[in-house]
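Task: sequence design from structure.
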């Protein structure tokens, strides 16, 4: 099936050409002003002291950060093997299962592109968990009532679908055991091994506090929890204005300037949209809202409802922010932590009692009522999060230019959380001068195989985009 021309695939391709020309003309406008992850952590509720740890630069290339889903049955969905099993079909089933390998895209964005390509509602594509955008990731997804041949014909940059088979049931949210991470952290020369191993052993023995990492807060602006708070407060009009006009110290200055220019026309929805149309993919959320407001000028709830997945994500981002605040308070006050912490999106009295002080301080006491105007936000009965996580460390290798490390984590735990207790991490641009930019086969360095085949598939789509040479 042919994709609709006005979809994310088309917009992304169109914008790459625009940005390439703009970067030549205004190179300084495409460098994020803040680069160190320690600048970002307080912004997302993480308050931990800086430790005497080696400097580490992460995600120079997406191949430096590999995330492979572990199913409930213990199977690892690999990112490097192109095909690893025969297609076994249950011809009576109406579901197509496949393993999705993607690079430089979030799961939400990848699924949207696939649904658009197939010209189907996004609800017919299911997945167990959201994987990072700035990485090479692999996970299982399923399609309901879609022809297998149509899935086989999908050809979308940065996405590979493999191991197609037909059967019954669907992939459900949360139906995974965890993820295996294979990472390469670039360092300022060869690090001292004894100190690194000492920290590694401490983590294995004592665990680390289960903070939600940056990917939970919406790159590149990292404002998803702010949006979520306004949902909790029942302020759809203020939320729309914040989405459209609030700048961020973490995004490209050029985007911030366009947003500031559009801000001067707030309320004139068509004029705002004309300005943001210059970069149609970066401002795709804003443009969707503006298109709704052009038709129904003051219906902010309706405008927000055009993006159910984003709304649900923002609500969960705010819930994650509250978890980070609680864990930060535990660390600061050095108090004995509970084994688990409940997630706030619940109507259980015990949960509301647990968060009572935070709800009052944040002005979100009536959040259950306020969230109900968006029925697609999932309000659970009771969900809890382990206060600490204990990674299963599989191995590491110290090289002159960095450290290759691979480990597994249970679901709802982040590799960046582990890394913040091993390195003072940095990412993004401008990068430190000491970063060695040579490509490293992370799988090969970890004795887990090779990325050669998958690199050949994805590299043409990354040149000039994510820094791959």
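Answer:
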């Amino acid at each position: 099936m042919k994709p609709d021309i006005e979809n994310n695939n088309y917009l992304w391709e169109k914008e790459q050409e625009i940005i390439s020309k703009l970067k030549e003309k205004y190179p300084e406008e495409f460098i994020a002003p803040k680069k160190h992850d320690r600048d970002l952590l307080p912004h997302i509720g993480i308050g931990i002291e800086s430790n005497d740890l080696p400097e580490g630069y992460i995600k120079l290339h997406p191949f430096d950060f590999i995330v492979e889903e572990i199913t409930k049955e213990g199977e690892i969905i690999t990112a490097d093997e192109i095909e690893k099993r025969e297609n076994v079909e249950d011809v009576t089933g109406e579901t197509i299962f496949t393993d999705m390998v993607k690079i430089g895209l979030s799961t939400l964005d990848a699924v949207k592109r696939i649904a658009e390509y197939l010209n189907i509602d996004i609800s017919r594509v299911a997945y167990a968990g959201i994987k990072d955008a700035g990485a090479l990731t692999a996970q299982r997804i399923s399609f309901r009532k879609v022809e297998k041949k149509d899935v086989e014909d999908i050809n979308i940059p940065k996405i590979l679908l493999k191991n197609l088979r037909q059967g019954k049931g669907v992939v459900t949210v949360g139906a995974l055991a965890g993820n295996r991470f294979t990472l390469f952290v670039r360092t300022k020369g060869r690090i001292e091994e004894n100190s690194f191993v000492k920290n590694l052993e401490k983590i294995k023995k004592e665990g680390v506090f289960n903070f939600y990492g940056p990917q939970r807060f919406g790159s590149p602006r990292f404002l998803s929890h702010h949006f979520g708070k306004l949902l909790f407060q029942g302020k759809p009009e203020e939320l729309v204005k914040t989405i459209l006009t609030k700048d961020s110290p973490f995004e490209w200055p050029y985007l911030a300037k366009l947003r500031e220019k559009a801000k001067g026309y707030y309320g004139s929805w068509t004029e705002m949209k004309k300005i943001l149309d210059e970069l149609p993919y970066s401002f795709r959320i804003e443009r969707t809202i503006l298109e709704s407001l052009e038709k129904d000028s003051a219906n902010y709830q309706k405008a927000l409802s055009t993006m159910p997945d984003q709304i649900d994500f923002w609500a969960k981002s705010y819930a994650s922010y509250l978890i980070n605040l609680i864990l930060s308070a535990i660390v600061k006050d050095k108090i004995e932590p509970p084994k688990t912490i409940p997630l706030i999106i619940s109507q259980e009295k015990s949960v509301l009692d647990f968060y009572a002080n935070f709800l009052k301080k944040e002005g979100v006491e009536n959040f259950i009522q306020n969230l109900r105007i968006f029925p697609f936000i999932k309000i659970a009965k009771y969900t809890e999060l382990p206060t600490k996580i204990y990674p299963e460390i599989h191995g590491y290798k110290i090289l002159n230019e960095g450290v290759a490390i691979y480990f597994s984590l249970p679901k709802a735990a982040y590799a960046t959380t582990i890394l913040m207790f091993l390195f003072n991490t940095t990412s993004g641009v401008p990068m430190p001068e000491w970063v060695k930019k040579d490509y490293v086969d992370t799988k090969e360095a970890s004795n887990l195989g090779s990325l050669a085949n998958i690199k050949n598939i994805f590299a043409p789509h990354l040149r000039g985009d994510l820094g791959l040479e």
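Confidence is low (pLDDT under 50) at residues 1-5, 464-469.
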